[in-house]
Amino acid sequence: MSLLVPLYVHPAEDPDAWRLLTSAADRIYGVVLNTANGPGTSPDPAFVSAARALRAAGTRVLGYVDLDYGVRPDDAVLRDIDRHREWYGTDGCFFDQVPADRSALPGCRRLVRAARQRGAATVVLNHGVHPAPGYARIADLLVTFEGPWTVYLSSFTLPRWTARHPPERFCHLVYGVPPALARVAEKAATERGAAVSCAVADTLPNPWLAPPPVLLEESA
Question: What is the distance of C-alpha 211 from the center of its chain?
Answer without folding.
Answer: 13
